[in-house]
Amino acid sequence: MTDQRLVHPADLRIAVGLLTRLPLPAGTNQPARGAQAAWAWPLAGLVLGGFGALVLWLGGWLGLPPGLSAALALAIMILASGALHEDGLADTADGFWGGWTVERRLEIMRDSRIGTYGVLALGLGLLSRWSLIGVAAVAGPVALIAAAAISRAPMVALMAMLHPARNDGLSRSVGRPSARTAALAAALAGVIAIALAGWAGAMAFVMAYAVTAGLGLLARAKIGGQTGDVLGASQQLAEIAALTVIVTALI
To answer: Consecutive sets of 10 residues in the chain, 251 residues long: mean pLDDT of each?
Structure first.
């Protein structure tokens, strides 16, 4: 039976285990929390952003060009997350614009092959993040930590608002978080955003949710709900939005 408590000590382990590929020590008596542990997703983002910020700092200390430091930071974050969200962005773009019916769009999104729309979305997403992280390398690596944490919270809201579009898959297996879980994730991300980036963090938080709301409306129109790929796409778009706001405020 799924543990329905709002917060459990194992939630951070569950969040990091789901959203990253970091090796974790084996837990004992870990409860079946599912989506109820999603409130901790911003903390998993904090960990990933911390890796990227550390690489940016080391790059500056070594005197590397900001562009190279940004590329290395982006690479370490992708490796640490297993390219989970990048894959979702590509699959979502392929499905939404490559199919004419709900069934065909879902079929395309499940296909492991990447199409033209997916390549374009992935390329533009990486280029956007690289250019913004390059600015963060000069203006302040803390922007990367804040954006990584902020961007994991809207996924929880999207799961709570929209039904899964298919009867299987990652999103269906994780379950739907409660409104309380989504609110706690938002509150946690908001505190992190303001603590790390002040008013710019607060504006980045608002922008990340606004972008996710737009994607949610599109997902409902295209496939009638959300999937794990849509959640991954929302993280990518939210991170770009948050980074844009924060680094613009810093320069």
So the answer is: 74 92 68 82 97 96 96 97 97 95 95 95 98 92 96 97 84 83 97 96 98 98 96 98 95 80
Residue pointed to by tokens 């789901």 = 18
Q: Quote the pTM value.
A: 0.94
Residue 206 burial (10 A CB sphere; 0-12, 13-18, 19+): middle
What pLDDT was estimated at residue 27? 54
**Torsion angle defined by CA atoms of residues 52, 54, 56 and 60, in that order, rounded to the nearest 10 degrees:** -170
